[in-house]
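Journal club side-thread
Mid-discussion, someone asked how the predicted structure for our own chain would compare to the paper's figures. Pasting it here so we can look after the session.
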Amino acid sequence: QVQPVESGGDLVQPGGSLKLSCTTSGSDFRIGAMGWYRQNTGMQREWVASTTSGGATNYADSVKGRFTISRDNAKNMVYLEMNNLKPEDTATYYCKLVRISLGRPPRDYWGQGTQVTVSS
């Protein structure tokens, strides 16, 4: 069973840094793309960053140069290092993993989210 679990959210001052982690139990499955999204109450969930199984990365313009996504394929983990945080980065951050199964379409799995609050 693929069940992503995020951690690392916290209250941080503007200009500060945080590192989010996402792990999943089990290892008898293959994970393709991994990504981070964020959402505020009443707003649509927005894509933040993603990484392919080969390690290629992409970022939303709003976080480019400040956030870094990385992954550990052996552990099926993905990380999001966030620097120079701004109040507008405040949101619940969600991890998404794409499971790859032979003969089946890819399937998305979402975590429950971790809260990041940027405030003085």
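Post-session note: The radius of gyration is 14 Å.
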